[in-house]
Amino acid sequence: MNGKIGAWIAVGIWAVALSASAQGAGRIVTVDLNKVFNDYYKTPIAQAKLKETVDTFTKEQDEMMANYKKGIDELNTLREEQEKSEYTAEVREQKRKAVAEKLAETQKLQRDIEDYRASHQKILQEQTQRMRQTILKEINDVISKEAGDQGYQLVLDKSGNTLNGVPAVIYSQDSLEITDDIIKILNKNQPKTTETPQPAEKKGNTK
Questions:
Q1: Cα–Cα separations (whole angstroms), residue 166 to 14, 31, 172
Q2: Rounded to 5 degrees, what are φ and ψ at 167?
Q3: Sequence ranges of the domains in the chain
């Protein structure tokens, strides 16, 4: 992850097709899903939990690396001592056995670190995906309900790009955008103890 916890919030191209409501004529509207995702109050909460997981993994891995480095230093010291001429042949043999044991120990530590890194990276990826999908589903449900209630025929993600790398929505009137409405609905039940998410800075497409 390289500490780039923010990369997990990118949203793919997404369109919700719905039948027109009997309450009014159907319309095609747009929504900026990147902005909705970033401004939803649950997103920074989920990111904070992920950061806690990353910090825990990093601390444990650093401790393992410190033990490994200590073992390497001890191994190098034993290697230097095993060939000292002032030692008897018997002592040098004992030193050589100590070197072999320490070498095996450090090799095991190295394997443990590699296994730890691989397994916990997988855990972090799964946790990231699970949280991301949970938030996306909540957003999808709100958009689908709003579209049904308002009689929209189609909701297009204006933040998405096509496979050719060009915007999926070339142009749309501002009056057709429902981004702020969706954010307001999502955040209406925001706990008072939770700070209101600040509007996301305009950046390049994160897809």
A1: 15, 17, 15
A2: -55, 135
A3: 5-186
